[in-house]
Each structure stands twice: as structure tokens, then as C-alpha cells.
Specification:
Distance between the termini: 100 Å
Largest sheet: none
Strand content: under 5%
Number of helices: 9
Number of strands: 0
CATH superfamily of the largest domain: NADH-ubiquinone/plastoquinone oxidoreductase chain 6, subunit NuoJ
Helix content: over 70%
CATH class of the largest domain: Mainly Alpha
Order of helices and strands: HHHHHHHHH
Shape: elongated
Radius of gyration: 29 Å
Length: 197
């Protein structure tokens, strides 16, 4: 009973924050509501026993992607009037796509509750989703996992190579030459006559 109450509380916060992402007037507030939506989605994943997905959602999306979104939104000068015009122009298509997604979710829930299908296998107390996911990932999908790792490595190197620009007017220090310096090269003693009254 307690787990069901926590699930409905998380689901309510997720729905409200999802609506506020779309309807927020300030883009920064919209991004912060999206962070809240990701946190509550991670809580729902934890309740469902998928702890790896919950941690990955928090680390990848909240820790990296949303921080990047927040910096981009705060640094850009966004014209809110143009954003609102695009919202009303794309509203019919968004309603159609949203309706299709709601129909799919209702169909899946209807089949799960009232449908005739194979009963789920009972899961033991020592079952770990993270261990099962790792076993499948590194045995059955090991080749695809290595290809994805190579593609991501190439993307990182390409992003660094595209953004690395050497400026000719940039100044930098050479610690080796600073250490080799001698007093005679830096200090000059000047002999001046004493002042007389």
C-alpha cells in the first residue's frame, strides 16, 4: 500500500512538472521543471526495481544533458514571442502525436490488466536487474556495445578537433624557461650619483 501511494505521488509530480515544462513562460524555469521530471521518473524506475536505469537517468540526463541545456538557455537571448508563435503553429500536430501515444499506453495497460497472455515468471529475492543487464550487454550484445563505444570515441575526438583553434595572439607561459632564468638576465644594477642638498 505504501509503495502504491509513493508511486502515485511520484506520478502526480511527474505529470505536473511535465505540463509546467511546456507552459512555463521563462525558459530557465522550463528546464528546471524538466530536471524535476527526470528526478521523479528516476524515482518511479527505482520503485519498479530498475535501479540501473534510475541511476543512469540521473547521471546522464540530469548531471550532463540538463546542465548543458541550462547553460545554453541562460546564455542565449531567446525571443519569447517567436517561441509562443511556434507553439500555436505546431499545436495540431502535437495533439495528434500526443493522442496516438495516449492510445498506445491505454492499449498496453488494457492488455496487461484484461488481456490473455502468459503469466510473468516469479522473480527471486536475490535477482538483480543490474547484474542481468550487464550479463546480457557483455555477452549477447558485446559486439554492438564495442561498436557504440568506438563511435562515441570518434565523436568525442571529432568534437575536440573541430572546436580546437590555436590563436596566434594568445600568450602562454613556459615553466621550463622560467626555471632556467638567472639573476643577471633579470636584474640590472644601476649606479646613480647621490643627491646633494
Amino acid at each position: 500500500m505504501f509503495e502504491t501511494a509513493v508511486f502515485y505521488a511520484f506520478a502526480a509530480v511527474l505529470l505536473v512538472s511535465g505540463v509546467l515544462v511546456i507552459t512555463a513562460r521563462n525558459p530557465v524555469h522550463g528546464v528546471l521543471f524538466l530536471v524535476l521530471a527526470f528526478f521523479t521518473a528516476a524515482g518511479i524506475w527505482l520503485l519498479l526495481g530498475a535501479e540501473f536505469l534510475a541511476i543512469a537517468l540521473v547521471i546522464v540526463y540530469v548531471g550532463a544533458v540538463m546542465v548543458l541545456f541550462l547553460f545554453v538557455v541562460m546564455m542565449l537571448d531567446i525571443n519569447l514571442e517567436r517561441v509562443r508563435l511556434g507553439f500555436w503553429r505546431n499545436l495540431p500536430l502535437a495533439l495528434v502525436v500526443g493522442g496516438v501515444m495516449v492510445a498506445e499506453m491505454i492499449y498496453i495497460l488494457w492488455e496487461r490488466i484484461y488481456g490473455v497472455g502468459a503469466a510473468p515468471r516469479p522473480i527471486g529475492a536475490d535477482h538483480s536487474n543490474t547484474k542481468a543487464l550487464g550479463r546480457v550487454l557483455y555477452t549477447q550484445y558485446a559486439y554492438a556495445f564495442e561498436i557504440a563505444a568506438v563511435v562515441l570515441l570518434v565523436a568525442i575526438i571529432a568534437a575536440i578537433a573541430l572546436t580546437l583553434r590555436r590563436r596566434k595572439d594568445s600568450r602562454y607561459q613556459d615553466p621550463a624557461s622560467q626555471i632556467r632564468v638567472r639573476r643577471a638576465e633579470r636584474v640590472r644594477l644601476v649606479s646613480m650619483p647621490a643627491e646633494k642638498e
